[in-house]
Amino acid sequence: MKSSIIRRIIGTVGLFIVLVFLVFLSWKLSSQTGAQSNHLSIRIADQMIDWLDRYFDLDRGDMFWKVTFNQLLRKAAHFIEYALIGTVMCIMLNIAFNRVVPAAVISVLLSPLFGIIDEYHQRFSAMRTPRILDIYIDTAGVLTGVLLVTLLFGIVHYIKKLKRRIWELEQRNK
């Protein structure tokens, strides 16, 4: 019993550290100027386009590959970043409290707040503009991450419950 509590505490603290790191990283990226942020995403987009070009014949002159792909990549980064934040928070709360639904509800309520604060923070970064669309994308990422974790923990909880019930029936029939 005591080792189980210690494992839960260690797991919760470890995930809290990961969560703080993800939020700090998000904050740090939002602190970049618009030019710095765009330069970073263009570099990543170019690397991805180079990789895709090895397998598909891409027309690099096409406006999609020059502009649109970078914008899609930036929005995908928002989604993935907040899916990770929502996932880590939900797992952390599931481990801490061993309650699936409250962990999901708290995660869905708190995680988007990071996105709102992050967008507000961008107001103070040169050449950056907060966008409501980014908050929607962040929230969709959180919902996706939390939903996947909740389904996973719900299934695991259900399997444990079934195993316990089978064990009880076997004990009764002995």
Automatic annotation (TrEMBL):
Transmembrane listed as a keyword: yes
Signal peptide positions on this chain: none
This protein's record includes keyword Transmembrane: yes
Keywords: Membrane, Transmembrane, Transmembrane helix
Residues covered by the VanZ-like domain: 16-152
One Pfam family of this chain: VanZ
Residue ranges crossing the lipid bilayer per the database entry: 9-27, 100-117, 137-159
Domain of life where this protein originates: Bacteria
NCBIfam families reported in the protein's UniProt record: vanZ_1
Protein name: VanZ family protein
Organism lineage: Bacteria, Bacillati, Bacillota, Clostridia, Eubacteriales
